[in-house]
Records
---
Amino acid sequence: GENVEQHPSTLSVQEGDSAVIKCTYSDSASNYFPWYKQELGKRPQLIIDIRSNVGEKKDQRIAVTLNKTAKHFSLHITETQPEDSAVYFCAAIANAGGTSYGKLTFGQGTILTVHP
Amino acid sequence: IAGITQAPTSQILAAGRRMTLRCTQDMRHNAMYWYRQDLGLGLRLIHYSNTAGTTGKGEVPDGYSVSRANTDDFPLTLASAVPSQTSVYFCASSDSSGGARETQYFGPGTRLLVL
């Protein structure tokens, strides 16, 4: 089955700096890659996603890049703010739209701390 | 519109007891999922249901059962709780009717402590 590795496990940055979180996946058939943000004691919430037919996607200060050949994808947050502090999870799914749709495999999470 | 709700919010349970975690969504999503979240391990899929009347096993199904009698409800049952089932449990749902079928929306979670 799919295996998703996420790095780093913790990340500390100063306000205004950029933050990058990287994930690798094992199943070359994976074709959908969402990123979730989870604040302390809250539910995971989707912040951005990318499909395998696109190499990059951007939404304001957040961007995701995908390298299918190397089987890795990354989350980029620019101009970080204290409210960006949270745990971030990457995930991958193989055969999205097929019989195994919905069965996301999550990375282990990255604790991001943005210092004012 | 409430979205997706879970009950109870938290529970302390004696080992060996039976417990059902409730999950209800009002978004008419076809697919629903149960995950457990443990520190350092992220979210792991327990069971899922692609549509009412069908269920499937996820990554860590042992000790858990589910049912999907209708579109809205997806209860998770621990037949005989053990301390290793202490975790935060999240229910999620997704809409299979369009191109964004993979986007999953999570409930607020149930914190379960088994003693």
Note: The longest strand of chain A covers residues 30-38.
---
Amino acid sequence: NAGVTQTPKFQVLKTGQSMTLQCAQDMNHEYMSWYRQDPGMGLRLIHYSVGAGITDQGEVPNGYNVSRSTTEDFPLRLLSAAPSQTSVYFCASSYSGRGRYYEQYFGPGTRLTVT
Amino acid sequence: AQTVTQSQPEMSVQEAETVTLSCTYDTSESDYYLFWYKQPPSRQMILVIRQEAYKQQNATENRFSVNFQKAAKSFSLKISDSQLGDAAMYFCAYRSSYSGGGADGLTFGKGTHLIIQP
């Protein structure tokens, strides 16, 4: 299993540009999520999905869109990049079953710089 | 909303010694999950240990163990026989047992930078 994969690993954008961060997992996990990590901070939840076709907002959703058309993929779209979105972005997935939740598996992260 | 506090921005320990990292959290829920994640310089988030709140027994994973004090809302991580490879940022995280309404996802502390002195 490849686990959780993210592309690209690094990206530089100009203010106002748009782009999509890709995330895929091959563990058949229902739950997927996106976090951002800023210096001196823990990870903060942007958006999450509990299954194909179902998404919801986390703590810091503004400026980002998500969709989940398949179990495997959960892309994150930046609509109009701003310097405040300079961060490291992590995708994660986890299994949930029998009413319990299990640990999240993280991708390697994407370092995004907006100039 | 739940909050997670790690009061030690940085800790230093001699190789082979024991170190304890502190974590406290605030919640009104009775059922939840707590995690410790390790983030080495590679920035990969690696699960160290997991604790379910309804379990009174403290979780252990080899050299890593927790002291879970539910009434005190405390969840400290003890690393025994510290090794150079343990050097990393350590994050404490909380997850509600509920789903929906923003409850999904992990709430992280700001992290503790662990330095291992050879």
Note: Chain B has no helices and twelve strands.
